């Protein structure tokens, strides 16, 4: 075999295969359930990846607690499947219970024992070495300084911390929390939020339900919004916001896509069989933004009589809001937003530099930070930072306004009584 000619370029190294995404820790497929004639869940499908904090959002009565009870092996679904860490909740519920920590809404506690006695009791129930484990949980939840206090004398926020400590004793991989900050005062909510962020840093996957959007916006990596038993939208918050902007732009140009056609009521998985096979198999991943799919029984994307019309954003989100024909379109109408910028040196100099610039609506200095109201998206934030740096002003912090989740929720839901 002849040698390569002198000066010839070396052979290219083979391309590395792209890294595969890890399988979801929580996998829900075509989940449906009813109580009597009332259909409380309708073909709900979503994934939660490892290490995520997934916010499950919806008004009271939307079906959040029913979904959670199925995930926690306390209720068997009438159709569809749920897997936790690869295990079907109806096939091997004992294995699922070993891998989850479940904290229900308004969970009770034993009031007449101390904090340490409470945790030691449940450590024995979980058959874990109580001394070392209880000490570790007391430290993690910051309850060590009150470990000898009687539980009845504790505040609601401290009792919630104790509940979180209880479900951590057996070191579960997944935490399922139903309204964990309900009825808490602002300080207790902040403390619970910080504890959840710390648990995520320890590798926990957290499924968190709530109807209080402000408590989710600071902690969640992804969300799912449930309305009248249907999953309206699911995915990373930033990705959903970007899709909604595309929808708004398409609608402003008169190119909003129509509702998708309703699937056949005879499709695989229709009916009330508890383990009816899903139309595309359990392995099929859900869309990043889920359309309003047909529930068992074939109602299609339109809710049955008495549940109101579908929201126009639902089909637009699912279809991606691509103008027909791919023709060039005018620039979209960009949203008005705010960002807080912290700089090195005098913030007044930065405010003066930004004032009156293209797309800048208002600039003010508040508590040492520059508050900028602007028209645009995340690209505009990058332009603001670049403009400051080019003019010799160092930027040490950028904090977009925390209203993205509220805006998404109001835009994709109808706000009707559940």
UniProtKB/TrEMBL annotation:
Coiled-coil spans are none
The Pro residues compositionally biased stretches are 276-289, 301-312
Instruction: Please name the CDD domains in this protein's record.
Output: ABC_DR_subfamily_A
Show the ranges annotated as biased composition (Low complexity): 313-328
Q: Which GO terms describe its molecular function?
A: ATP binding; ATP hydrolysis activity
At the top level, the lineage of the source is: Bacteria
Q: Which UniProt keywords apply?
A: ATP-binding, Nucleotide-binding, Transport
What InterPro entries does the entry give? AAA+_ATPase, ABC_transporter-like_ATP-bd, ABC_transporter-like_CS, P-loop_NTPase
Which parts of this chain are annotated as the region Disordered?
A: 1-23, 251-334
Q: Which residues form the ABC transporter domain?
A: 26-253
Q: One Pfam family, short name please?
A: ABC_tran
Record's family? Answer: Belongs to the ABC transporter superfamily.
The name under which this protein is listed is ABC transporter domain-containing protein
Q: Which organism is it from?
A: Sorangium cellulosum (Polyangium cellulosum)
